[in-house]
Each structure stands twice: as C-alpha cells, then as structure tokens.
Amino acid sequence: MIANREGGDRVLLAAVMAALLAAASWPGAARGEDPPALSATRATDRAEEARRLREQGEEYATQDRHAEAIRAYQAAVAADPSLGPEIAPSLGAQLLWADRTADALPVLEAAVARNPGDLEARKLLALAYRRTDRLDRAERLSRRNLVEDPGDTEERNGLAIALQWQGRERDSIVEFERVLAAKPDDPEALLGLSRSRLEMDLPEDAERYATRAAAVDPKSAEAAEQLKKVRRRLARYIEGEVRATRDTDRLSLLDLSLGVHGRAARGLDLGATARELFFRQGGPEKDGNIDGEDSVDGTAGAMSFAYRTGPILALRGSTGVARYDVAGFRPWTASAGATFFPGDLWSIALDWERAPWDTILSLQNHVTVDTVSASFTRAIPWKTKINASASLLFHRNENGAGQPRGNRGQRYGIGLDRRLYMHGDVTRLTGLVRLGYLGFRDDLDVGIYDPVRQTTQEVGLDGRWAFRPRWEAFGTAMAGAQQEKGQGGSPTYSLEAGVDREVGAAGRITLGAFVADSSAAGREGGYRRYGGYLRLRLPF
Q: Cα 177 from chain centroid?
C-alpha cells in the first residue's frame, strides 16, 4: 500500500510539475501571478478543463478584464500546453491592453514565427514594436501588413506614427493624409498631422488639424492638450528676464531685458527687446582696465524676425543698437541666418552675427565680433543626432596701445546627442559628447579671449523632468578637458539647472542657475563664471 501510494504521489507530482513548467513558459509566471483555481475535473479531463478556461479568458477579454483574461489563458495552457500556439495571439493582445508590452513582445514574436500568415498577430506585433521603440521593425511590418490589407486605416495610422517617432515628419504626413482621404474625421490622423506640422514649426497648419480633432472628439484629452500647445506657440507674449553673473576676474554683470514677441502673419514672428546692462569690477583686477575703470552702464535695443511658411527653408534676423557710457562706444548689432531642410533627418544652417564683447576693457577698446558660421545636423532615427559646425571670427578694436586693430580666428565643433530615456512629451535624458577647437592669429590684450590654439573635449547629460503638473525641472552637466597651446591642459566642468512653472494658458516662469569652471593655465590658473536668472513670460 505504501509503495502504491508513493507511486501515485510521484505521478501526481509529475503532473503538477508539468503544468507548472508549462505555465512558467508564459509571461507573468516570473512575477508570481497565480492562475485561477482549476476545477475537480482536471485529473480526468485536462482537455475539457483547458477548453473551459480558454472560453473564460475570451469572456473576460470581451469585458476588458485584461488581468483576469491573462490568468485564464495562462491556466488553459498550463492545463493543455498544446493550446499554446492557438492562444498566443489572444494572450499577446491582452498583455498589450494591460500595458505589459515587454511581456507581450516575445509571445507575439513566437506566434508570428509559428504562423507568418496570421495578419492579426502581425498587426499586434507591429504595435508592440512601436511601444518598445523598435521603430524600424514596426515600420517594415506595418508596410507588409498594408500590402495585404491596404484599407486598414488603423494600421496605416500605426505606420505613420512609427515614421513620426523616427523624425520622418514628411513621410508620416503622407500616410496620415491617406487615412484622412478614407476617413476625413479620423481623430488619430488629425492629431498626427497637427503634431508633425508643429514639429516643423508650421503652427497655423497644426492649429487647423488640432481644432478639427477637438471638434470630432470634444472629450479627448490628447486633442485638448495638442490644441493648447499650438495656441501657446501662436500666442503673443511679453518676456522679462533678470540675469546676473560673476567671474573670477571679479567682474559682475547685471542684465535686465524686456521684450515683446508675437505672430504678425502666417509664418512670420516679430520681436522687440530692450536691455539695461551694469558692469562692475573690483579688487586689483580692475587695474587691468584703462585708467582703472570699475563700472560701465549700457543700454541696448533690437528688433528680430523669424520667417517660415514651408518645410524647406527657415529665415531669421535681427538689428539693433547699443550705447555704453565709456569711451563714447555706440556699436550696432545685427544677425542673419537661414536653415535649409532638404530632408526630415538633416539640415544645413548658415549664420552671421555682429555683437560687442562683454568686459569693461573690451568696451573701452570698442571691440566688436563678427561671426560667420555654417553647421550641418544629421539625425539617425530615432535617438541620435550629430552636428558639425565651422565658424570664422573677426575681431575689430580701436585700442590705443599700438596693438593690431584686427584679429581673425576659427572655431570648429562636433557634437553627438544620444537620447537615453524618454517618457511622454517632456521627460527625457540625453547623453552629450562635444569636441571643439578655437584658434586666433594673435593673442591680443584688449579685453577679449583669443587664444592662439585651444582644444576641448567634453561629455555630459541633458535632461528635463515633469515632476508635477505644470512643473518641470531641467539641467545640463558637462565635464571634460581643455588644452591651450603653450599652457598645457586641465579639466573643465559646467552645470546649469532650474525649474519651469506654467502660468495660465501660455505663461511661464523660469528660475535657473549656472556655473562654468576651467582651470586651464592659459587663464592664469583657472576661470570660473557663475550666476543665475529669473525669466517671466506672460501672454497678452
């Protein structure tokens, strides 16, 4: 009797272990989720029990009771593992709807591998690929699905979203417009077109689509939020800023600015800004200025514009004047630039700018800087961006110490941005790499930094975090090394951090602080600049 009982126990244990091993092969087992209790018929009719559990799972699925449906499907497979291939697409779908995409992905991949002709399973897999940022796979699979079912507007929206998330706005617009040709009031296509147009800085077009989406579905939070973003971009606003800095040369600068900005016409932004500047320098460092000058006040004003009516070209420019109460300095300022967008993933920018340098000695010497630059940016879908730039710098001065009154330099840079994390539209973390070169023909003593040759290498992080409704924190941290000809090399670092708070429909208040430190011997043992700013933007 004992032997028989032991033999019976071994059979029962083997059956239980087989069921447990089958259940463990499905997502959810590793997290300790228990399948629903099996009825007493299990020992005599496992197939019937598995069929009942499967039907139970299908009933839960029709009621959107996803967690219960998942447990029922898993229990059905545990009771009869041969049902696994049949149940896999349904289980994968329920895992997707329960926001367990990481668990759904291997289930759906296995289902498609077993039955490549299962169109519905392939559509679910394309969705899982989009949700897990496998955008190239999602695109390929959606295109394959649309060959078999070209009228599926939901799948075409999915293809458009995969293209949009890769930064391929123009390609996504084509697909969204195909959806609208079949369904003129499709809210997902309308929102997608609005987002693409806003990303291309075409807010009038974006507003038209967002307004239609909100009219189609007045209760849609997504449509309301998108319309809010577009109208914030189109709003006229007043912006004021208080910025204070201090450096190791004991030079302090208080910069007060007040500007008015707005959309004057379709594609045209105009702005006007007035500034008051207060320079103060103390200690023995002021003796380096002409006649030991320790204070300068300045007033400046400028008009600016930006123009873009299509996806190919964006123009910008500004002009202004300034007046400083030292040495009769009355410089004019200006800038002009254009950015070409031959494709969604790359752009070319050309810019010129003229401005004075911001030290007391440079103002006494009437130093102005003309910068002509060209840059090339290439995005690699969908997380990496590479930028290369080259600039010519022309320094002019009116020094009375017999030094050359002109100096020419070059600046080159290469940057790489790699997105490391993203959640929603705001929260993100990006890795940064920067390489730079700066060199001038002469190293003059006119109050401006013009090394004969300097190279820099930096790495860092840039991030933004929506930690509460209407509140965002941001920060950029860099660290690296700097080498200057004839002076050796040394480490460098910089840090900027702050918070943003939305005010009203389109207002914003920003509080930030920064510090940058270089201990290069070429700057007499190190140069540190630190400060902070308060910025307030109010619509009107």
A: 26
Compute the Cα dihedral for 137, 139, 144, 149 and give only its sign: positive
| Residue among 296, 318, 298 at smallest CA distance from 307 | 318
d(CA 149, CA 293): 78
Asked if residue 382 has a cis previous peptide bond (ω within 30° of 0), the answer is: yes
At residue 129's C-alpha, the angle toward residues 78 and 175, to 5°, is 135
How does DSSP assign 241-274, residue by residue?
EEEEEEETT-EEEEEEEEEEEEEEETTEEEEEEE
DSSP code of residue 33: P
What pLDDT is recorded for position 31?
Answer: 41
The model's confidence at residue 471, banded by pLDDT at 50, 70 and 90, is very high
Query: Is the pLDDT score of 5 beyond 90?
Result: no
The H or E element spanning position 367 is none
Kindly report, residue by residue over 119-160, the tens digit of the pLDDT: 999 999 999 999 999 999 999 999 999 999 999 999 999 999
427 bridge partner residues: 423
**DSSP 3-state percent helix, strand, coil across the chain (nearest 5):** 35, 40, 25
Phi-psi region of 408 (alpha: psi -120 to 50; beta: other; left: phi over 0): beta
Chain-centre distance for alpha carbon 159: 21
Model confidence, pTM = 0.84
Average pLDDT over residues 156-180: 97
Classify each residue of 57-86 as buried b or exposed e, where b means 16 or more C-beta atoms within 10 Å of its C-beta.
bbebbeeebbebbbbbbbbbbbbbbebbee
Give 195-242 pLDDT, tens digit per residue. 999 999 999 999 999 999 999 999 999 999 999 999 999 999 999 999
Angle between helices 153-165 and 169-182 (to 10 degrees): 160
